[in-house]
Amino acid sequence: HTSRALTMRLIFWLAASAALSHALRIATHADPRCCGCGAVGPPQGGWASLLRSRPLVCSEVEPAALSSSVKIKIKKPSEAATALASTVASAVAEPPVEAKVAIKVRTKTPPAESLGGAEVATGAEKKPPASPAEELLLAGTQSANVTKMLEALQMGANPNMLDQKGRTPLHFMAGVGLAPACMLLIHFGADVEARDNMGFTPVHMASGYANAQTLRVLIAAGAQLDVETSQGTPWEVVKRLGEYQYKEVWLKRTDKWNKLKKTDDKLEKLKACALALDDPQAVKDEMVWDDMLREVLSLIKL
């Protein structure tokens, strides 16, 4: 009994779906007329056309009659469209234009050997390799070894050799604070006025690193003290460093983070530099160059 009821419900649902589909088919056409016979509404044989298709055709109408009854109107193109079409047609009819493309290929300049030994000018001079004496001087400068430096200078090393930043060994020794090395370099011809790529002289290096002893050696050798750079003169460098050290370190020595309690070594060194720069003549009168040089040489031999 239950299966029969379900079957009846299924048949009823299918019939309702078919009726709904038929109604939708008719409703989708705004003017349900046969284009062959002119009949209104679906005929007894039904429509011969598909769902939503146009035009609607009765099933009784012959295909030949349908083809003769259907008229298609083609709108005449405008004058602008006709002119555009003729322009395109003439452009297509013209022969293609040949275009020439010039391609430049860069080739690398062959080495001198491939040119039969001819030299090729590159616009930059190749730096000659360092001599054994200069290699020894470089090693002595990097390790702050005065004995190696003296040996290299006695072998004929150039005391004014430059690094990539344009600094000489005297720049480094002045900044490190090794006064005996500065005296040896100056004795063997080092330029006390040499400037690096930023314009700094050995005096600037000694002042910037607060090395009063090397600064006094340079003053005794006659170095200029008023050379201007982006950081100012040596005196201005020392003054600026001293003011910072005094305000930011010495006056804050009672703070918990500050380990400085009684003395400030850097401030004392800057003070000594300032005194030497302030009265260079007193430094020259106090320091006798020949006596200092003999003392340095005797210490090296020991």
Textual characterization of the structure:
Residues 1-23 form the signal peptide. ANK repeats lie at residues 165-197, 198-230. Keywords: ANK repeat, Repeat, Signal. Residues 111-132 are annotated as: Disordered. There is one protein chain. The model is unreliable at 49-54, 62-70, 99-105 and 107-124 (pLDDT under 50). The chain has 13 helices and no strands. The protein is elongated, with a radius of gyration of 52 Å. The protein has 2 domains: 2-68, no CATH class; 132-301, Ankyrin repeat-containing domain (Serine Threonine Protein Phosphatase 5, Tetratricopeptide repeat), CATH 1.25.40. Helix content is 51%, strand content 0%. It has helices at 2-27, 63-69, 79-93, 132-143, 146-154, 169-176, 179-187, 202-208, 212-220, 234-250, 265-278, 280-286, 289-301. With 302 residues, the protein is mostly helical. Helix 8 (202-208) packs antiparallel against helix 9 and helix 10 packs antiparallel against helix 11 (265-278).
Summarize the structure.
Residues 111-132 are annotated as: Disordered. The protein has 302 residues and is mostly helical. Helices cover 51% and strands 0% of the residues.
CATH class of the largest domain: Mainly Alpha
Give the CATH superfamily of the largest domain: Ankyrin repeat-containing domain
The geometry reads as elongated
Number of domain modules = 2
